[in-house]
From TrEMBL:
This is Delta(14)-sterol reductase ERG24. GO terms for molecular function: Delta14-sterol reductase activity. Keywords: Lipid biosynthesis, Lipid metabolism, Membrane, NADP, Oxidoreductase, Steroid biosynthesis, Steroid metabolism, Sterol biosynthesis, Sterol metabolism, Transmembrane, Transmembrane helix. It is a multi-pass membrane protein. It comes from Hermanssonia centrifuga. It catalyses: 4,4-dimethyl-5alpha-cholesta-8,24-dien-3beta-ol + NADP(+) = 4,4-dimethyl-5alpha-cholesta-8,14,24-trien-3beta-ol + NADPH + H(+).
Length: 434
């Protein structure tokens, strides 16, 4: 009796909806795969390149939708098998490569999960194999991702649907700790947002594994394949624009993997469940949409010259500096360290809030840095089409929405202390603007 009561207390019914409720969740569930394919088919060489305006994207696409052969072309057995092999490689690397086990933050049943830290070594191994292959057999040996792009994307989508469904269905069995936002009882919404907080198989944590390994590292491989395709076409070196996009994105990926423990204080890990939203975001959206700029540069071989290169480098490294130091300050602080002696305020909840350093400038300085980097990744594509700026636009919407969700959670967690904090640190993301 008392066990049942404790479980019900721990997993209360979710009262409100985010993302405009089940209809919004259904819309995003369909829109994410549709947009991924639309950006490919509407912005590829076969359709005449990226259109100069967004409204011309739809006519390019609509003729394909009524063609059964087009639907069949989405499936590619060879690419699906290669994708499965890639996923299996990541799982094997997780188990085989050495790594420290660290504790995550305390979850609401009072426990802390243990996580194996070897995402960066998985990345180094993948890069070693990839660059070894390119060095030994030439750039043409690594263009297969570019050639089978659609097939790989479909395989990643199938994997996301499978994992989203599996995690939703298994969340009903046993004594699972559910995400506070994912237990509404509406299957469409809960499938999308994620019902179980930390689906795992033994010590293997499904959510953090997917967030950092098969999708994020695949993004690096997709970019490298696109750069190889450009090199093969040119018969020489890649353009300066492609080199910058490749360098910036590989740096961003390596940074996320090197700082693996920092994700255990992000809201995906501490608050959100693992549902279709994160599965498709991690496995499909990140590798196949975030690489759009590099894909554009395969056929539009923009040469920036030294002045533009310098400008883009400054924008990227300003963003990177803000992003890294802000995330570092918070991560150190949440792990009981304060090497810069930053000011902070005590709260009734017990956890302190930083009020100086980057977290005194605005309430989400890490988002500000991330957005500057997003701009730097699109600038090398020039200004012929707005479509290569899709990432900047989408990311601005994602981070503003994410900031609103996080503030709502913080208001619940900290109550009056949060209001005190927002008076001390007035701006949300953009100092003096928002
Ligand atoms: N490339 C991409 O597609 C994406 C990248 N990101 C990046 O991921 C990173 C993590 O983002 P996210 O999880 O959204 O948010 P944060 O890492 O900013 O974490 C938010 C949490 O930090 C804590 N916090 C807030 N204010 C303070 C303060 N003043 N002092 C100490 N702790 C504070 C609160 O949790 P508590 O107090 O409970 O510890 C809050 O819930 C960011 O750098 C973001 O840019 C995010 C989404 C997509
Ligand atoms: C459109 C859609 C379905 C969106 C879902 C959102 C996801 C794409 C993002 C949610 C949080 C993310 C993070 C990263 C990638 C994008 C997703 C999965 C991240 C792994 C990128 C690298 C960073 O260094 C990071 C580790 C801080 C970051 C964590 C959050």
């Amino acid at each position: 009796m008392s066990v049942a009561k404790t479980k019900a207390d721990l997993n209360p019914r979710t009262q409100g909806y985010e993302f405009l409720g089940p209809l919004g969740a259904l819309f995003i569930t369909l829109a994410v795969p549709a947009t991924t394919y639309a950006l490919y088919f509407g912005c590829s060489e076969s359709s005449g390149g990226c259109p100069p305006a967004l409204d011309t994207l739809w006519p390019t696409l609509s003729s394909s939708l009524s063609d059964p052969e087009w639907w069949q072309s989405l499936w590619d057995t060879k690419a699906s098998l290669m994708y499965l092999a890639w996923y299996a490689f990541c799982v094997v690397a997780y188990f085989v490569l050495p790594g420290d086990w660290i504790e995550g933050t305390q979850i609401r049943d009072g426990t802390r999960k243990m996580y194996k830290i070897n995402a960066f070594s998985t990345f180094l191994l993948s890069m070693g194999i990839t660059f070894g292959l390119i060095w030994r057999f030439g750039a043409q040996s690594f263009t297969f991702i570019y050639e089978h792009w659609v097939g790989f994307a479909t395989a990643a989508l199938a994997m996301s649907i499978f994992q989203g469904l599996a995690c939703y269905l298994t969340s009903f069995h046993g004594d699972k700790l559910l995400a506070l936002g994912g237990n509404t009882g509406n299957p469409i919404y809960d499938f999308f947002i994620g019902r179980e907080l930390n689906p795992s198989i033994g010590l293997f944590d499904v959510k953090s594994f997917n967030e950092l390994r098969p999708g994020l590292i695949l993004w690096a491989l997709v970019d490298i394949s696109l750069a190889c395709e450009q090199a093969v076409r040119r018969g020489s070196n890649i353009t300066d624009s492609m080199a910058l996009v490749l360098f910036f994105q590989l740096l961003y990926i390596a940074d996320g993997l090197y700082n693996e423990p920092a994700i255990f204080t992000t809201m995906d890990i501490t608050t959100d469940g693992f549902g279709f939203m994160l599965a498709v975001g991690d496995l499909l959206w990140v590798p196949f949409v975030y690489s759009l700029q590099a894909r554009y540069l395969v056929s539009h071989q923009v040469e920036l010259g030294p002045v533009w290169c310098a400008i883009v480098l400054v924008v990227n490294f300003t963003g990177y500096y803000i992003f890294r130091s802000a995330n570092g300050e918070k991560n150190d602080f949440r792990n009981g360290k304060n090497p810069k002696n930053l000011r902070y305020m005590d709260t009734a909840r017990g956890t302190k809030l930083l009020t100086s350093g980057w977290w005194g400038v605005c309430r989400h300085p890490n988002y500000l840095g991330d957005l500057l980097m997003a701009l730097a990744w699109s600038l090398p594509t020039g200004f012929e089409t707005p479509i290569t700026y899709f990432y900047v636009a989408y990311f601005t919407v994602l981070l503003i929405h994410r900031e609103l969700r996080d503030e709502e959670n913080c208001e619940k967690k900290y109550g009056a202390d949060w209001h005190k904090y927002t008076k001390l640190v007035k701006y949300r993301i953009f100092p003096y603007i928002y």
